[in-house]
Amino acid sequence: MNKRVEKALNDQIKKEASSSQYYLSMASWAESNGLNGTAKFMYTHSDEERFHMLKLFKFVNERGGRAEVPKLEKPPHEFKSLNNVFESLLEHEIGVTVSINNVVDICLQEKDYTTHNFMQWYVSEQLEEEALARTILDKLNLIGTNAGGMYMFDRDMENSLIHVNNENLDTQ
Ligand code: FEO
Q1: Chain centroid offset of residue 49 CA
Q2: 155 phi, psi to nearest 5 deg
Q3: DSSP assignment letter at 159
Q4: For ligand 1, what atom is nearest to the CA of residue 49?
Q5: Is 63 in the pocket of ligand 1 (CB under 6 A)?
Q6: CA atoms of 40 and 44, how far apart (whole Å)
Q7: Given this structure, which CATH class describes domain 3-171?
Q8: How many percent of the chain have pLDDT more than 90?
Q9: In which element (H, E) is residue 11 found?
């Protein structure tokens, strides 16, 4: 595997693993603040990020590279509000999109069209994730500080707007 592509993919593995930890931290905050629907959403989202990480991990090894288990920093533990949680999530996902685009760019520069093709799944996924975060933030902005609205919001999150991508880890 091209060394520059391998390094970019290993950097992305770290980003996906960090995302999983970050959303787990958000799940913990939500659960300890009685927001069980939001907590469930975040646990699911954290699992989804681990899946994103594993899919890259397998791909690197199958292509003759070496996937590395990254060292992770502790994610933020406190959030000011539910809005702040989802604003942080959107900001984080925008950063992940930049990073995915960077990997795609390196694939093109190195003429690695197989990895470029593989990365298209992540490009689509980022589009969905950013759109979902924006939809949720729009809802929260509509609710404002209304306690009843907040209760309904959290209950809706229990029935989750997000789907865990249960696709298998096939890298083809
Ligand atoms: Fe795997 Fe939410 O980006």
Answers
A1: 5
A2: -65, -40
A3: T
A4: 1
A5: no
A6: 6
A7: mainly alpha
A8: 83
A9: helix 3-32
Rg of the chain taking only CA atoms, in angstroms: 17
Q: Is the CB of 6 under 6 A from ligand 1?
A: no
DSSP-derived letter for residue 73 is P
Residues 6+ away with beta carbon under 8 Å from 93: 126, 129, 130, 133
* Kind and range of the H or E run holding 112: none
Q: Which of 65, 68, 56 is nearest to 96 (CA)?
A: 56
CB 92 near ligand 1, within 6 Å:
no
Q: Which atom of ligand 1 is nearest to the CA of 92?
A: 2
164 band by pLDDT with thresholds 50, 70 and 90: very low
Q: Which atom of ligand 1 approaches the CA of 52 most closely?
A: 1
Single-letter residue type at 120: Q
Ligand 1 site, residue 18, Cβ cutoff 6 A: no
Q: What is the pLDDT of residues 97-147, one digit of tens each?
A: 999 999 999 999 999 999 999 999 999 999 999 999 999 999 999 988 888
Query: What average pLDDT score do residues 14-38 get?
Result: 97
- Amino acid code (one letter) for 50: R
- CB neighbour list of residue 71: distance below 8 Å, 6 or more residues apart: none
**Domain segments of the chain: what residues?**
3-171
